[in-house]
């Protein structure tokens, strides 16, 4: 990448890798392996994470390139957006996307034909989500349904098929539960982006239906997804500790969404959404712990104690997020203007200048 120092290259790649999203991808991949009975196979997990994380890098680069103008409105100065902060140029992201797609495809086919074909399909869907003429991201509810398919189905199914096992109806029902729960999460992302989405005609669920309906639909997705995951995780629904842990987490999310549905400031809004994200990650960790410890033959009291500890950590982190909001320590150095400028960027700056002269909002 055209950045000043090698350390800056690493920081840009970390920012593009979206660490929080990468953790989700890793958890979904591990859940796929665990559902296939391979929870204790770290070498296979590592082999699966290579194509999965390369796919994530490809998706982020393509999306950031397509949404650069919107991100300048929604996320000015956001250090997780190298194009917005001028830490990287458009050509850098194009090259990164091409390499990431090649790595994702090759590494997936090394795992087998089914993982390879699955990866090719996911790359096509991800490109269609961001790029014109398809550009599913602008199609409101369709975007909220398609994005979770990439973020949940790919890592989960790749982990599942990499073991060579058949995909059973129970596996698909668990996938549907994970998918539904993630829809509830991804709808909340639109609160952060609502200003730019409305300005550029991006008809998200929030823009079309408002915050109260969005929070209500999100709560329904969280609840349905949690119930489906609970009943498809072996031994979870019949044991009081896993069932109680899931119930408490879903109840906490519903309370947060109730607060979010009312009038709150931007900073408070961001903190509330961060709290739901912490609970979402915690639910995945609880599910993975239930599967892994059962396969390892842990006794019921020991498994229950571990789940109680994980539940306490999850709710504690969520409470901290709700109170203080998310934090980041990543700093990206900006490029010289000549390295960042592209014909597209130049035309957007000219358009923004024209809007400013006419008294309209500028991107």
From TrEMBL:
Pfam families: UbiA
Membrane-topology annotation of the record: Multi-pass membrane protein
Listed Low complexity bias regions: 345-363
Intracellular or extracellular location(s): Membrane
UniProt keywords, alphabetically: Membrane, Transmembrane, Transmembrane helix
InterPro entries xref list: Prenyltransferase_related, UbiA_prenyltransferase, UbiA_sf
This protein's name: UbiA family prenyltransferase
PANTHER family xrefs: CHLOROPHYLL SYNTHASE, CHLOROPHYLL SYNTHASE, CHLOROPLASTIC
Cited Gene3D superfamilies: UbiA prenyltransferase (1.10.357.140)
Lineage of the organism: Bacteria, Bacillati, Actinomycetota, Actinomycetes, Kitasatosporales
Region Disordered: start-end pairs: 341-363
Bilayer-crossing regions: 12-31, 43-62, 141-160, 209-231, 243-260, 272-292, 304-322
Main location as per UniProt: membrane
């Amino acid at each position: 990448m055209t950045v000043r120092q090698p350390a800056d290259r690493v920081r840009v790649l970390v920012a593009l890798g979206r660490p929080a999203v990468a953790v989700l991808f890793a958890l979904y991949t591990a859940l796929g392996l665990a559902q296939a009975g391979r929870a204790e196979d770290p070498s296979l997990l590592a082999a699966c994470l290579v194509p999965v994380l390369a796919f994530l890098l490809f998706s982020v680069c393509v999306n950031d390139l397509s949404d650069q103008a919107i991100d300048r409105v929604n996320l000015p100065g956001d250090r997780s957006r190298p194009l917005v902060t001028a830490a990287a140029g458009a050509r850098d992201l194009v090259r990164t996307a091409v390499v990431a797609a090649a790595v994702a495809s090759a590494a997936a086919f090394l795992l087998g034909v089914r993982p390879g074909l699955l990866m090719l399909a996911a790359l096509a869907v991800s490109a269609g989500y961001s790029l014109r003429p398809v550009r599913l991201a602008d199609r409101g509810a369709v975007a909220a349904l398609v994005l979770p398919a990439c973020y949940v189905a790919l890592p989960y199914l790749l982990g599942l098929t990499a073991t060579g096992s058949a995909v059973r109806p129970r596996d698909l029902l668990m996938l549907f539960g994970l998918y539904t729960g993630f829809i509830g999460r991804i709808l909340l992302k639109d609160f952060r982006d609502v200003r730019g989405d409305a300005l550029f005609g991006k008809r998200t669920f929030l823009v079309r239906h408002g915050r109260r309906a969005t929070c209500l639909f999100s709560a329904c997705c969280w609840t349905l997804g949690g119930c489906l995951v609970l009943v498809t995780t072996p031994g979870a629904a019949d044991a009081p500790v896993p069932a109680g842990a899931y119930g408490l987490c879903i109840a906490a999310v519903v309370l947060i969404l109730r607060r979010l549905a009312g009038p709150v400031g931007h900073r408070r809004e961001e903190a509330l959404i961060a709290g739901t994200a912490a609970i979402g990650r915690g639910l995945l960790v609880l599910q993975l712990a239930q599967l892994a410890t059962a396969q390892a033959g842990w006794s019921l009291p020991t498994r229950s104690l571990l789940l109680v500890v994980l539940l306490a950590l999850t709710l504690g982190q969520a409470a901290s997020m709700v109170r203080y909001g998310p934090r980041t320590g990543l700093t990206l150095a900006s490029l010289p203007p000549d390295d960042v400028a592209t014909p597209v960027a130049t035309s957007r700056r000219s358009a923004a200048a024209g809007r400013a002269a006419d008294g309209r909002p500028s991107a």
